[in-house]
Amino acid sequence: MLLYISCGGSLSLSLSLSLSFSPSPFLLFSEPEPKRARRSLSLSLSLSLSLSLASSPIERKGGGGMEIDRAIRESTDRRLQTKYNNAIYVIQRAFALYKLEEVALSFNGGKDSTVLLHLIRAGYYLHMDKTDFCNGIQQDGLLNCPIRTIYFESPCAFPEINSFTYETASHYGLPLEIIRSDFKSGLEGLLKEKPTKAIFLGTRIGDPNAVGQEQFSPSSNGWPPFMRVNPILDWSYRDVWSFILTCKVKYCSLYDQGYTSIGSIYDTVPNTLLCIADSSSMEENFKPAYMLLDGRLERAGRAKKNSVKSENNSVPSNGLNIVDAHQSASYRASIIIVGDEYLFGTFEDKLGTALCKKLHDIGWQVSHIAVVQNEIDSVADEVERWKSTDDMVFLLGGLGPLHSDVSVAGVGKAFGVRLAPDEEFEEYLRQLIGNNYTGDRNEMALLPEGITELLHHKMLPVPLIKCKNVIILAATNHEELDTQWDCLLELPNINLVRTAPFKSKHLSTMLSEVETAQVLSKLSVDFPDIYIGCHRKSRLGPFIISFVGKDKTRVESAAAKLSQSFSEGAFSEADCG
Ligand SMILES: Cc1cc2nc3c(=O)[nH]c(=O)nc-3n(C[C@H](O)[C@H](O)[C@H](O)COP(=O)(O)O)c2cc1C
Ligand SMILES: Nc1ncnc2c1ncn2[C@@H]1O[C@H](COP(=O)(O)OP(=O)(O)OP(=O)(O)O)[C@@H](O)[C@H]1O
Ligand SMILES: [Mg+2]
Fold first, then answer.
1. Which candidate, 500, 471, 469, places its Cα nearest to that of 485?
2. Given the DSSP bridges, would you call strands 198-200 and 103-106 parallel, antiparallel or unpaired?
3. 546 alpha carbon to ligand 3 midpoint, in Å?
4. Residue 108 CA: which ligand 1 atom is closest?
5. Which protein residue has the closest C-alpha to ligand 2 atom 7?
6. Which protein residues touch ligand 1 with a CB less than 6 Å away?
7. 326 by DSSP, 3-state: which?
8. What ipTM was estimated for this complex?
9. Which atom, in ligand 1's list, is nearest to the CA of 263?
10. Structural domains present in the chain
11. What residue stretch is flagged as signal peptide (predicted)?
12. Of the bound ligands, which one is closest to the alpha carbon of residue 209?
């Protein structure tokens, strides 16, 4: 369903002029709150085009976007200026490529779309500025921003987000098009009703949906055809807040209450990293979003989709359901060991086994352990194979500055993303190894773009690398593995969930495999939820049968059933540590 709401703006010059003087929308807006950080705005008298218009009605009403351009140019933040210039370039390219009525801004009141809105206002002002000078048109008509603005309104949105979106649209005269259906069908309807060739989005590298996107990316297969324009794709969390604070633009009040990335009311809470410890108060208080130091943790307040699995281990009588119940309570991991030395037989891998034990101890199943060569393709193939079937994939080895250290590149290839320099990781490496790199850029700081999360912990000299559900461990011995594992268990939001531990029982017998085979085969059918494994240390020594599962009673009854099938004393309990 599509609703068109005119908020005081229009594509027509005269209409936008008359409506922009209506005072009511502006009353909704106050100056930025005092607690927000302010930067002094020095009024330099440089002969910039924007300053030459400083006293025009555009500036007085604040609708023309020139104040944004001026705030950035007057700031001393060189990084922000570069990011701004690049974003404006992308926006101007879009305005040059498409007719104004064919482009739309996808705006949802979030911090990224707030930045995007103001960049578009500035880009539009600069674009029109050039056009008008060419055409000899006066500037005074550009009080509002007449870019079509689409908002997918949902009953699950925070009321603060909803009202901020409406107020902002009203304030800047954005012609708002409200869509009350899911993104895909909403866009199908939109494209049928109005020719829409390009849509501006506030997507940033690091967003789950940014993988593989460029600044201009056609919509995905299966989506209606349009160009996704992502002017702030390369902006960091810090860049977003530098822009908002430098330009002193209003943002949704939730960001002053500890929210750092906003989804629905059902999956978003304030970011605990901003919680202010105050034992005297019963209430939890939070610092504003711009105080978050590590932007990589901006989504720490967002619940992970599908992260909560059923812990219900109850066993129904029907065997099929037993399997389902058992599987739903288990997480699966795979382990990939990278190293030619293990394949030559020169060294024996012990860390993989130790990691299996650690995973087993937190109730996870290890589906697979592989040893691969130091080749990007070997790593990529193996990661590719397991990343979608297992909850987590662990890589051991192949991390470092050597030609044979290919784990990071292999992971990037498996996800189809390129490697890009990671400033923060580079800084850690610099602190650890000084400036003794080969070449002018540290190759170890090239990480898979858009999917890398650095896992920080005070016990780790360098954060661990996580790409989606793949974690690259940096351990070379048991002690390091123990430390890294303990850190992983303490870190929030990485989905390494402790589940019900496995229970096991081991029986030892001097009976032969031939004598026990038939009974064991029937047991495995009767107890599909229990792993029944056999092991012997020597051909002539005792034969060990293991029963492993999450339900202790089921483990016990499977073991008891085996014992009862043979003469008394044929089995004794074995301790397999
Ligand atoms: C205007 C617009 C265009 C989109 N186009 C695509 C697309 O082409 N392909 C796609 O997979 N998702 C597309 N999406 C969905 C987004 O990738 C993403 O799921 C959405 O922004 C919600 O993010 P969240 O799941 O983190 O809340 C689009 C969303 C919007 C609002
Ligand atoms: N409901 C929506 N209506 C319109 N556009 C949307 C909607 N949800 C997402 N988008 C578009 O997708 C972009 C990315 O969404 P995302 O949630 O990552 O960023 P944000 O909401 O702007 O900021 P935050 O990360 O703080 O939530 C938005 O900037 C906006 O362009
Ligand atoms: Mg959001």
1. 471
2. parallel
3. 49
4. 31
5. 108
6. 106, 183, 187, 199, 201, 208-209, 219-220, 223, 228, 263
7. helix
8. 0.97
9. 27
10. 2-10+62-239 (3.40.50.620), 331-490 (3.40.980.10), 503-574 (3.30.70.1130)
11. none
12. 1
Tell me how far apart the alpha carbons of residues 103 and 147 are, in angstroms, rounded to a whole number: 7
Long-range contacts of range 454-458, CB-CB < 8 Å, 24 or more positions apart? 454/296, 454/422, 454/424, 454/425, 455/487, 455/488, 455/491, 455/494, 456/294, 456/491, 457/487, 457/490, 457/491
Which residue has tokens 């209409």? 15
Chunked mean pLDDT (size 10), the chain, 577 residues: 45 28 27 31 26 32 73 94 96 95 97 97 84 47 76 94 96 94 94 96 87 91 95 94 96 97 92 79 84 84 49 30 37 94 91 95 92 95 90 93 89 90 84 65 80 92 94 95 95 82 92 92 86 87 91 94 95 84
Closest residue CA from atom 10 of ligand 1: 220
Nearest CA to ligand 1 atom 6: 219
> Which amino acid residue places its CA nearest to atom 9 of ligand 1?
220
Q: What pTM was estimated for this model as a whole? A: 0.54
Q: What is the CA radius of gyration of the chain?
A: 30
| Packing angle of the helix pair 376-387, 407-415 (nearest 10 deg) | 50
Distance spanning both ends of the chain, measured CA to CA: 63
Q: Which helix (H) or strand (E) holds 536?
A: strand 531-536
